[in-house]
Fold this protein.
Amino acid sequence: MTEDVYSDYIEKSIKQFAEESVRAGNLDKSQALEKAQDQFTKLLPDGLNTENHQLLSIFHDNNHIGMLWLHIKWTNLGKEAFIYDFFIDEQFRGNGMGKMSMSALDTYAQKLGLKKIGLHVFAHNQRAVYLYQKMGYEFTNHHMARYF
């Protein structure tokens, strides 16, 4: 990912994360943007140069179609990654680009020697849940809530 793409991405992603967190009931709307900004600042203190984080642009036929943010770390299981963000631009959705991108990630993960890739998906994002399940991802936890 280039600095130009990163600048555009980070601004949009913080806003989207705040909106999704409000929709999921995790954050109050009045505080969501500030809390999302704080979280991104903590996770990426050095932007693109943050150690153990890879922000990757996704291309298809020379078109920038999306991005992937990985955090790579060592655990007691070995080398693992966590997907902090993955998206395909709206105009490229629905024609296999998400599946193709996740397959490319599998190949990349094998080259890196990863033992596991984890991720978080908002429960209301059924399109993403379906893609991840189709690609072999399994639920490891469920969080439930009842609102009044």
User: Anything to note?
Assistant: The mean pLDDT is 90. The first strand starts at residue 53 and ends at 60. The longest helix spans residues 3-23. Residues 61 and 92 are 12 Å apart (CA to CA).
